[in-house]
Write a structure and sequence with these properties.
CATH superfamily of the largest domain: Mur-like, catalytic domain
Strand order of the largest sheet: 9-10-8-11-12-13-14-15-16
CATH architecture of the largest domain: 3-Layer(aba) Sandwich
Number of helices: 16
Strand content: 15-25%
Largest sheet: 9 strands, mixed
């Protein structure tokens, strides 16, 4: 973050400084976890359902924090405190003020905002790789895409930052309007409207309406990039006030298009990238045909920001997964290939990962094994959504399915109803039981997909299987 005095921070967040000299300056990082404090930093004491950051002010001070944002004064804590009504809102206010100050410079940082029900993090990583030649590019760590993660990402910017690549997630109406109030976008990108967070929205139409908030808050002199292959996203063009509209997809009317798509034996897509009357051959480093959409989105952004087509194609071919637990491939000494896609899951991303699993198993002589956990925040239709994923797994030809935890039980039920052999559809009550079952079953040549919502921590299955090499 840029250096700020305590009175400057207090003015930005509408707070008051308690027990500190006014000349004290914050020069380090802004964090919400006391274990991540760096010398000279600012600790934001968030209060959650299980953890209250106010209990960790002494730890933050011991790690070098000079000040903390708090909602109540903690007099025994040995660091300066800025008291506010709501530390989460104050974090957003501080990020808004810092970005506004940075944008007064010439050149100030450009903001690229990404939303979509699937693909945000992979696309964010691809865009960050594409734009590295423009100067310092800041992108979120993992999926920092909410009212806490986005401001923390913005506050990493300084006078050298040329581009901020920001994920903007939404689990309720108004989320994107709030996030864009912190970081107004120069370029907005909408990837897809899917069945994520249905519990908060109630319908896919409501999801589409929420995603449209990013388009409507993009200024008239900005750019909006839309997925022409998703009808709900394509329809957002009529809501855009932006002067520049770019469509990407596989159709002939797309401005940035993929043609002649093929998959290699590893499930990596090859295609012709066409834009502006020019073409370049792409061979993606990422696994799964669904990454063609993400690659086209990243290419569209890069081209809009002045990167040449040939370079865009080359970078797409050399950029691997940068964020953990997203289609990362591990190989055990026993000859088993494991696809770790356990960071997140919804019905659409589950289907995409299952297609990739079956593709990667073809010709190996091994079996395709899907280890699937719960998909969270799907609302009253959750059981049916899980059941339909199981049906789809059987239909695309998965050889063996292991449903982990009770909420995922309908996945196995759906697979059985769709004709999967009863011996091949197994249920496990937890990760330990799942690992035990897999160790008995797996053999050389098998390909295993591990996928669930992040809170399930199903990636621990991958760690345990690797440990038992």
């Amino acid at each position: 973050m840029i250096e700020l005095t305590l009175p400057q921070i207090a003015a930005a967040v509408g707070g008051r400084v308690l027990g500190a000299p006014e000349q004290m300056t914050v020069s380090g990082e802004v964090v919400t976890d006391s274990r991540e404090v760096t010398p000279g930093g600012l600790f934001v004491a968030l209060r959650g359902a299980r953890v209250d950051g106010h209990h960790y002010l002494a730890d933050a001070a011991g790690a070098g924090a000079v000040a903390a944002l708090v909602t109540r004064h903690v007099p025994q804590a040995p660091l300066a405190q800025i008291q506010v009504r709501d530390t989460t809102r104050a974090l957003g206010d501080l990020a808004r003020a810092v970005l506004s100050q940075l944008r007064t410079a010439n050149p100030g940082p450009q903001v690229v905002a990404i939303t979509g029900s699937v693909g945000k993090t992979s696309t964010k990583d691809l865009i960050a790789a594409q734009l590295e030649g423009l100067g310092e590019v800041i992108a979120p760590v993992g999926s920092y895409n909410n009212e806490v993660g986005l401001p923390l990402t913005v506050l990493r910017a300084n006078a050298d930052t040329r581009v901020l690549v920001l994920e903007m997630g939404a689990d309720a109406p108004g989320n994107l309007t709030y996030l864009t109030s912190i970081a107004p976008p120069d370029l907005s990108l909408v990837l897809a409207v899917g069945r994520a967070h249905l519990g908060g929205f109630g319908s896919i139409e409501a999801v589409a309406e929420a995603k449209t908030e990013l388009v409507t808050t993009t200024p008239a002199d900005g750019t909006v990039v839309l997925n022409a292959d998703d009808p709900r996203v394509a329809a957002m063009a009529s809501a855009s006030p932006a002067a520049t509209l770019v469509r990407f997809g596989q159709g002939e009317d797309a401005d940035v298009r993929a043609a002649d798509i093929r998959l290699d034996a590893e499930g990596r897509a090859q295609f012709v990238l066409a834009a502006g009357g020019r073409q370049a051959q792409v061979h993606l480093a990422l696994i799964g045909a669904h990454h063609v959409t993400n690659a086209l989105a990243a290419a569209s952004v890069a081209l809009q920001l002045g990167q040449p087509l040939e370079q865009v194609a080359q970078v797409l071919g050399t950029t691997f997964a940068r964020s953990p637990h997203r289609m990362q491939v591990h190989r055990t000494e026993a000859g088993v290939k494991i696809i770790d896609d356990a960071y997140n899951a919804n019905p659409d991303s589950m289907r995409a990962a299952l297609r990739a699993l079956v593709q990667m198993t073809r010709g190996t002589g091994g079996r395709s094994v899907a280890v699937l956990g719960p998909m969270r925040e799907l609302g009253p239709d959750s059981a049916d959504e899980h059941r339909q994923v199981g049906v789809y797994a059987a239909q695309v030809g998965v050889d063996h399915l292991l449903a982990v935890e009770g909420e995922a039980r309908p996945v196995a039920d759906g697979a059985l109803a769709a004709g999967l052999d009863p011996q091949a559809a197994v249920r496990a009550t937890g990760i330990t039981e799942a690992v035990t079952s897999l160790r008995r079953y797996l053999r050389s040549g098998d390909v295993v997909l591990v996928k669930a919502s992040n809170g399930v921590q199903l990636w621990r299955v991958v760690s345990e299987l690797e440990r038992s090499r």
